[in-house]
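Chapter summary example.
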Amino acid sequence: MILAESIALVTGASRGIGAATAIALARLGAHVVITARTQGGLEDTDDAIRTAGGAATLLPMDLAAQDQIDAIDRAFISGSAGWTCWCIAPGRWGA
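The structure predicted for these 95 residues follows.
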């Protein structure tokens, strides 16, 4: 697979372009970390990823909340988690 052993972060992954992107990246072999505000939508995307043979980590969060963005930075960016790609596809930005 093209993206085997890759890690991709996809925001806005509970529906629409974000969900479609997460599923496509998983089909290409990436482990996808999916974020969105709605847990139920993330679970639907996770089901689709697993059906496609992929793997995902769910990370419910609101990108309008600075403390949650800071948490991503501390846990993943500054920690050099080995991100291969990012897809920022929020359905709504800001409060």
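To summarize the output: The first helix runs from residue 16 to 27.
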